[in-house]
Structures are given as C-alpha cells and as structure tokens.
Amino acid sequence: MMSHLPFENWIFNRENLTSDQIAELEAHLKSCQHCNRIQSGWSEVEQLLQKPPLTPAPTQFVNRFQASLAQRKALQQKRQIRAVFIGLGSAFVLLSIAFIVRLLWIIPPAQLLSDMIGWVALAPQRWSEIQYIFFYWAGQIPPLALMVFVFLLAGWSTLLLGLWFLTLQRLSHLGVHEQ
Questions:
Q1: What is the mean pLDDT of residues 45-61?
Q2: For a Cys-Cys bond, which of 17, 114, 120, 157 suits 21, CB 3.0-4.6 Å?
Q3: Alpha helices, DSSP H only, in 51-142?
Q4: What's the pTM?
C-alpha cells in the first residue's frame, strides 16, 4: 500500500503536477486497479461538486420563513433573558448562602440572635434619633434655600419624566428600526 501513496496524493492534487508526473500517474493508473478505482471515484465526486442538482424551493417557502423568523427571534430573545435572570438569580442565591455560612462561621448563632433582637428593640429609638437629626438640620437651612432646592428638584424631575414619557411615546408609535 505504501507504493500507492504518491499516486494517491497526485490523484487528489492533479493541478500541481508536472507533465512527467502526469505521464507517470497515467501509466500507473493503467496497471493499478486500486488507484484506478480511487481516480474514477474522485472524478465522480468532482463532477457532483461542480454541478449540484438544484431543487426549487417549495411554494411560499420564503413567506413562511420570513413570517416565522420574527417569532424565532422573539423566542430566542426570551430564552436569553430567561437564562440571564436564572444566572443572576442563581448567583445571588449562591452568594447569599456563602455570606450566611461565612457569617455563622465568624459569629456564634447566640450572639447573632441577641444582636438581631437588640436591633429590633432599639429600632424605634433610632428612628426618633434620625427624625431629630433631620429636623435639626432642616431648621438650620434658610427657608429660601430650602424652597430653591425643592423647586430645582421638582423642575428637573418634571423635565426628566416628561422627556422619558415623550421618548416612550415616540418609540411606541414609530417602533425601533434595526440598522
């Protein structure tokens, strides 16, 4: 079989052969049935590759394909969104579990429980302290400056909400065109 190797390579790469190699190959093909079968098989393959049979598309194929394309794109987008949400949710759950395990590893459960009870018990006192701080500092701000701040905040909020509403309305009427 090893004596056939250069001839088998020459059969598949006939374009790069010299005239002497072509004559040697032709002489070998007359005497070797194995290489002759390879040559005839390769010739048939080349003919099939050069003239593939064209089959006409079924009627209304393009219309059905284009109609289902939008549905397939929407389905693919839903799958991608679902995969992202599942991935983010899984990451959040795993990180939460890791945090809780780490917290329980560092802090004994009894101390953790007593801290939580203390936090719940002191929540009303802390709320009143926050209210006191807020009202104290609100009393320190001049009324004119407070009114200017409120008007600026209300104006910017109204402007941004209005622009957001107009953008949503324009997109819903015109639609988004792919580039």
A1: 76
A2: 17
A3: 61-106, 109-140
A4: 0.34
